[in-house]
Amino acid sequence: MAEDFFSPRNIIVTGGCGFIGSNFVHYVYDNHPDVHVTVLDALTYAGNLENIRGILGDRVEFVHGDICDAELLDRLVPGHDAIVHYAAESHNDNSIANPEPFLRTNVEGTYRLLEAARKYGVRYHHVSTDEVYGDLALDDPARFTEETPYRPSSPYSSTKASSDLLVRAWHRTFGVRMTISNCSNNYGPFQHVEKFIPRQITNILEGQRPKLYGDGLNVRDWIHTEDHSSAVWTILTRGRLGETYLIGADGERNNLTVLRDILTVMGRDPDDFDWVKDRPGHDRRYAIDATKLRRELGWTPSHTDFQAGIRGTIDWYVNNRAWWEPAKAATEAKYKRQGQ
Ligand code: NAD
Ligand code: DAU
Q1: Which atom of ligand 2 is nearest to the CA of 214?
Q2: Which of 160, 195, 212 should be mutated for ligand 2, with most atoms under 8 A from CB?
Q3: Which end of the chain is least crowded, N or C, by CB within 10 Å?
Q4: Where are the domains of the chain?
């Protein structure tokens, strides 16, 4: 059984100007009016203050800063009762091109936050990924569980795995009150155009052909980002200390199917795309078994109709061109240099 509810009143959300972090800040703002959120974000290429501008005020405050800055954390953390840690370098392809920022932000940044949580007795929730478990074969009936051994493949996923291990060590050795969640692939509004689904939608909107890596049969386990937010809130407030929970919504689909869905919804020929060079070390399949989260904490996803979720996401990119257009040309130029 889960322990008594934890009722945070004043939380720090790192990376709250990124894709999933900003969706979480909106989720807390919309559903928990008694909670104050301090967003700590360095506004890297992936962070955009516009994601939360409409809700900045008494209940949501923004601090521009780096999670590796220990002095800033000393000033910021006291007085808060929880840190929810989303900030990261998050894109696999970038980690292959240049791993260094991944080591700094994902490993050192997590270390700095853990030290602050330890020093000021603040509860800590660590947002991580299913990629720490490596990949599964397409014909393997298995799915990832909390017991699956760590076997990360990319520089990105190995830094996330490292950060998970630091969190566990800080719990066992120093008693930091923590929980960890490992979630599958998110989709929804505010996702950077470098990622698979927004890249293809915005390519089509710009009259460019979508780009599919390898044979297109790699499987991802898609979850709407709002369901990720509700799961993180559930784990933060009801999860058992020291525990890891996997988050997923039974959304396995291969990339070719997802791309053809997008093309069809947008009124294009489902074969109107380019096959491009594969990602080195490309994980074949991810699949989450979220039984522990569902049974122990009673969480269920709301967005169970993937087609409806994709239509909503396409509408968001159609209606928010000013949000994504500034990043599009540089992102595609980078992919072009990589042959992708
Ligand atoms: P994102 O790249 O969209 O956003 C990352 C945010 O972190 C940005 O706002 C950026 O400015 C900020 N940031 C980066 N370095 C920082 C630093 N040193 N100090 C302060 N802020 C910094 O990432 P995302 O896709 O929203 O992912 C958020 C978290 O969720 C990550 O920890 C990621 O590993 C995890 N996750 C992502 C997915 C997914 O499908 N995208 C799935 C599971 C878990
Ligand atoms: O599983 C969770 C992870 O999901 C998170 O930890 C990562 O932060 C997040 O970026 C995501 O990682 P992926 O590498 O799975 O996501 P990405 O959007 O980069 O790619 C999804 C799939 O689509 C993958 O199999 C590669 C493929 N792809 C990607 C791009 C950008 C293409 O075929 N074409 C593309 O243009």
Answers
A1: 33
A2: 195
A3: N
A4: 10-191+223-250+282-306
* Residue 1 banded pLDDT, cuts 50, 70, 90: very low
* pLDDT tens, residue by residue, 43-78: 999 999 999 999 999 999 999 999 999 999 999 999
Express each pLDDT in 88-129 by its tens digit. 999 999 999 999 999 999 999 999 999 999 999 999 999 999
Atom of ligand 1 nearest to the CA of 23: 26
Residues lining ligand 2, Cβ inside 6 A: 90-92, 129-131, 184-185, 195-196, 199, 211-213, 218, 220, 255, 279, 286
pLDDT for 306 beyond 90: yes
Active-site residue list: 130-131, 156
CATH superfamily of the domain spanning 10-191+223-250+282-306: NAD(P)-binding Rossmann-like Domain (3.40.50.720)
What is the C-alpha to C-alpha distance for residues 138 and 41, in angstroms, rounded to an integer? 37
As given in the structure block, the two tokens for residue 105 are 């932000």
Residue 249 CB-half CA count within 13 A: 23
